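Contributing new records

If you add data, match the layout below exactly. Sequence lines come first and carry their own label; structure lines follow with theirs. Keep one chain per record. Anything else will be rejected by the validation script.
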Amino acid sequence: MHEGLVEILLREMVSSLPNKKREIYQFIVSLEDELAARSTTSEQFMDLLVLHAPHQQAAEHFKLSFGEVLTLMHDIEGELNEKIEMKINKLKWINCSSIDSITHRDQKTFLLIT
């Protein structure tokens, strides 16, 4: 599956989460993304995760226990993965290359129906 498409589907699914779940998910993911951007290796990223503890920061920010945040993130990620998988299974690609062959001879054209 095209990585960009999965990213689009993920954003769509995150935006459809209930407010509290969406806020917690986005809070943690934004902290993790920031740490990833500062890392040059996977080891450095793991060290930064341990040092900055995004899940612990989320627990403090949202006034939840660390365990509650871990459980909630696990549930949210499971829910998102399930929704994305269902959406991917419903996708249909239609090859429209023959229709568009006059203007774009060397390119294939597809229509994605969700």
